[in-house]
Amino acid sequence: MTKTALITGSSSGIGKAIYETLKENGFKVYGISRENSEIICDLQDGIALEKKTKELLKTTDIDILVNCAGVGVFKPHEELSIKKIEELINVNLKAPIVLVNLVLRSLKKTKGHIINISSVEATKHSKFSALYTATKSGLRDFSLCLFEELRKSGVRVTNINPDITKTAFFDELGFKPADDKESYINSQDLAKNVLQIINSPFVVTDITVRAQKFAIRKR
Questions:
Q1: Is the N or C terminus of the chain more exposed, i.e. has fewer CB atoms within 10 Å?
Q2: DSSP one-letter code for 92
């Protein structure tokens, strides 16, 4: 039987790579993003997200939920606008929590799998990363608590903490991955890792994927 996946942030970066990898491997895939996806939705719009997700669930059971959409900012905290603070909290933390709430009954029915893409920043403490780390640490802890809650239901929960990954995520930031291929994660390789986790006979609850070297380029 064909399994169905729902993926946020599917139009670019890690989300797009996961979308394409699952589709190539026989999954029916629905993407959620602001453009170029089956479900067009701004994840900051909670009302629209609830409405469109419930519409999908009327006709579709979900086997895999991948919360991948994310935004970042790395600046002194006092320089952040309230709008930017709300954006990070809404996209990185609130939207995944809301989506799990909406889809969980379907996932219990299919004994499905929740995969949350957090960040290596959720495992450490970095300068100018207080807001971003707070949202990603929250997502990681949500995932780990949710696993304990859902063990008896048969629903799997996986949290992934990727290191610097070469995507458009860095386009508006003050730095980007260095050119050395050992200093960043390739999104296609990370997507293959996600597929392995889905197909694993055991549950991978929390995994951090690191680059061999640390190197960035300032703009």
A1: N
A2: I
pLDDT tens digits, 73-125: 999 999 999 999 999 999 999 999 999 999 999 999 999 999 999 999 999 99
Q: Other C-beta atoms within 10 Å of 172: how many? A: 10
Of the candidate CATH numbers 1.10.10.10, 3.30.365.10, 3.40.50.720, 3.40.47.10, the domain formed by 4-218 belongs to 3.40.50.720
Q: Give the residue extent of every domain in the chain.
A: 4-218
Q: Is the dihedral of CA 52, 54, 55, 61 positive or negative?
A: positive
Query: 117-172 pLDDT, tens per residue?
Result: 999 999 999 999 999 999 999 999 999 999 999 999 999 999 999 999 988 888 87
Classify residue 149 by burial, with Cβ atoms within 10 Å: 0-12, 13-18, 19+. exposed
Q: What is the C-alpha separation between 58 and 102, in angstroms, rounded?
A: 12
Longest dimension (CA), the chain: 52
Rounded to 5 degrees, what angle do the CA atoms 50, 55, 57 make? 95
Quote the pLDDT of residue 19: 98
In angstroms, rounded to a whole number, what is the distance separating the alpha carbons of residues 111 and 88? 30
Q: What is the DSSP letter of 166?
A: -
Q: What's the mean pLDDT when you consider all of the chain?
A: 95
Count of C-beta atoms within a 10 Å radius of residue 126: 11
Give whole-number Cα distances, 219 to 68, 155, 199, in Å.
Answer: 26, 43, 40
Residue 138 token pair = 């929250």
